[in-house]
């Protein structure tokens, strides 16, 4: 009697159950990487992220129509990029972020009206902007932040009561304010800071009112 093959060695395309196991394994490697990064164990975090990426890359290639695995692959590339930034490996980080962006852009084209994909796209563009800011490439950072802000603004306009969308746009304004301040364009910086404040204030007031009500009526 021969031993059964390891479930992690079976061709995922031929075994849908195993493909889910592999995806679960990749997810766990990713979570381990996140915890290790929070602990400051950057080299180990990067190694765990890379293990997750290798599995997700195989799954995505085996089932290119599975958009969720494509999304997870984009996300792990973004985590890798963030860990590489922490390690000071900015060129490698930029490559990882660019790979993530390319995947998300493909997904966004499948369903251009999906706020989900647009949020993902705005997030990775912001990561690229933060990287350029770290490099001192202020003009490039501004370009990325403006692009991300435009996406956030469209999402927020389409769903004005969505607190998360409004907060994301507020933070995008704050990023633009910061980059304009670095460029000594104080008029533009003040405009975006004030826009951020104006957008946050109503929601902050509503949250405080809710807390006050809860305190009075436990």
Radius of gyration: 21 Å
Tell me the domain tally: 2
Spatial shape: globular
Q: What are the secondary-structure elements, in order, as H or E?
A: HHHHHHHH
The CATH homologous superfamily of the largest domain is named Tetratricopeptide repeat domain
Q: What class, by secondary structure content? A: mainly alpha
End-to-end distance:
66 Å
DSSP strand count: 0
Tally of contiguous helical segments: 8
User: What is the name of the CATH class of the largest domain?
Assistant: Mainly Alpha
* Proportion of residues in β-strands: under 5%
CATH architecture of the largest domain: Alpha Horseshoe
Low-confidence stretches: 1-14, 206-218
**Biggest sheet layout:** none
CATH topology of the largest domain: Serine Threonine Protein Phosphatase 5, Tetratricopeptide repeat
What does this structure look like?
It is built from eight helices and no strands. The protein has 218 residues and is mainly alpha-helical. The protein has two domains: 1-110, Tetratricopeptide repeat domain (Serine Threonine Protein Phosphatase 5, Tetratricopeptide repeat); 112-210, Serine Threonine Protein Phosphatase 5, Tetratricopeptide repeat, CATH 1.25.40.10. Helix 1 runs antiparallel to helix 2, helix 1 (16-39) packs parallel to helix 3 (67-86) and helix 4 (90-110) runs antiparallel to helix 5 (115-135). The model is unreliable at 1-14 and 206-218 (pLDDT under 50).
Task: Describe this protein with a few key phrases.
single chain; 218 residues; mainly alpha; Serine Threonine Protein Phosphatase 5, Tetratricopeptide repeat; globular; disordered N terminus
């Amino acid at each position: 009697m021969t031993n059964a093959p390891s479930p992690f060695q079976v061709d995922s395309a031929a075994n849908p159950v195993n493909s889910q196991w592999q995806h679960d394994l990749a997810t766990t490697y990713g979570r381990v990487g996140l915890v290790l990064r929070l602990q400051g164990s950057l080299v180990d975090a990067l190694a765990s992220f890379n293990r997750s990426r290798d599995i997700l890359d195989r799954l995505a290639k085996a089932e290119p129509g599975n958009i969720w695995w494509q999304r997870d692959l984009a996300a792990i590339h973004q985590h890798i990029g963030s860990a590489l930034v922490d390690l000071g490996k900015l060129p490698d980080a930029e490559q990882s972020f660019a790979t993530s962006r390319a995947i998300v852009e493909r997904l966004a084209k499948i369903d251009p009206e999906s706020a989900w994909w647009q949020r993902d796209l705005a997030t990775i563009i912001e990561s690229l902007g933060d990287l350029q800011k770290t490099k001192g490439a202020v003009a490039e950072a501004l370009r990325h932040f403006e692009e991300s802000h435009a996406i956030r603004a469209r999402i927020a306009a389409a769903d004005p009561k969505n607190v998360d969308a409004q907060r994301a746009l507020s933070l995008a304004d704050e990023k633009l304010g910061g980059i304009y301040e670095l460029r000594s364009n104080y008029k533009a910086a003040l405009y975006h800071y004030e826009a951020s404040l104006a957008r946050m204030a109503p929601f902050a007031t509503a949250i405080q009112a809710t807390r006050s009500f809860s305190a009075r009526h436990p």
